[in-house]
Amino acid sequence: MLTREEDIDAHALSARGWTISAIARHLGRDRKTIRAYLNGDRQPGFRACTTPDPFEPFAIYCAARLAEDPHLWATTLYDELLELGYGFSYPTLTRQLRIRSLRPACEPCRPATGRAVAVIEHPPGEETQWDWVDLPDPPAHWGWGRCAHLLVGALSHSSRWRGRLCPSMDQPHLIDALDRVTRALGGCTDVWRFDRMATVINPGTGRVQASFAAVAKHYGVQVRACPPRRGNRKGVVEKANHVAAQRFWRTLPDDVTPEQAQQVLDTWCAKRGDTRLRPTSDGKASVVTVAAAEPLRPAPAAPFPATLSVTRVVSAQALVSFRGNRYSVAPELAGATVTVTLRLGAGHLDIATETGTVIARHTLAPEGAGAMVRDHGHVLALEHAAITAATSARPHRSKQRIPPGPAARAAADTLRTRTSGSPTTPGAAGAEVVIDLARYAAAAAARTTPPPAAPAGDK
Known about the structure:
The structure is a single chain. The chain has helices spanning 4-15, 20-27, 31-38, 56-68, 74-83, 90-99, 171-185, 210-219, 235-249, 258-271, 287-292, 376-389, 406-420, 437-448, and strands spanning 127-136, 147-155, 161-166, 191-194, 222-225, 277-280, 283-286, 307-313, 319-322, 325-328, 337-343, 348-352, 358-363, 372-373. By secondary structure, it is of the alpha+beta class. It has three domains: 4-105, no CATH class; 127-292, Ribonuclease H-like superfamily/Ribonuclease H (Nucleotidyltransferase, domain 5); 307-388, no CATH class. The strands form four sheets. Strands 3-2-1-4-5 form a five-stranded mixed beta sheet, sandwiched between helices. Strands 8-11-12-13 form a four-stranded antiparallel beta sheet. Helix 1 runs antiparallel to helix 2, helix 1 (4-15) runs parallel beside helix 8 (210-219) and helix 2 crosses helix 3. The radius of gyration is 42 Å and the shape is elongated.
């Protein structure tokens, strides 16, 4: 059985014109096995086991012991297993420990700094290094949240690099960025080296993800994982990450769109990055000159058909923005959230509701063209909705004189009649009470006038 890495290598070597016999000798496998995998008759990682694994009963004990003590010698573990009935050899034990990755890595014992660094030779056309770099605080109008992501691809030999801005690091965006950067670099190398990103390499096992194996076969490349905690193994792309952050992202204006920012990056790489001088056997030459001599294979005619999905909010004009263009939907969806789906390599995109119902399909416009792609039915529906909602009446003036009308005057007469027939002061029901104000005046005068003096004889 071939491992997934060997299966990818076999397809990559076959795409380069190697014969089945040569591939079998290179991988140390039988020719019939190689032919079966190349023809698709067998899949990596699947093999029916006809006999039980004799080491399986001891694997649990080994995993527990090594989890307790990662530094336990294999010879000591072998002595313990002999007491438990282990009947195989010591090399079998060490092989099973490696295959099953039972010994965990001890971080304090594996520092990443202060160690000697070897010089690694990078033959022309052999390797492309890939890595994500997080770019904080993108412009708010992009709608990308707190961080933008840049996939950087660098040719190890010439150090030529290109990057692709993405709102997400999921696998469809990764595949789209891989294809675009590969074409910008001029073609495919023999090997793609990745950091241990989860969309390509299983972080736990270090093996290629099954979902990415088909992508590697499509481009005819071999996938290599960078060893953990060995960032200098991919120092070319790490330096490109540093340059992209300091010389591109740090000075990017706030008023640019993602498409304009991508154009700024591409222009900088062509004018500044490719003009750097590199030492060669004949002296010094520019990066673009060294890269032009690399034997790169042409990229496939079409990108790998991954499906890319993003969410968007429909504008008041019933338009959906996607990669620098706007696409129409029905006017009833203004303000709603929709999903834009694009199959890489296709000439159209689909717009669906949150429930997954496709409501529009449009021809894909060139990226960043500022085009407005509208369906004729959507145009008519929007115009009808706008005409229906519009009115030709003049708005009311705030200082206009509007006296009470006939209806208001009739209601006022009814209120006056009702009021005049009801008592307003205490008294008999239905009787009109007349108040004479002269009596109140006399009473007030009497209270303020002092009484007359008494006669003398009355004392």
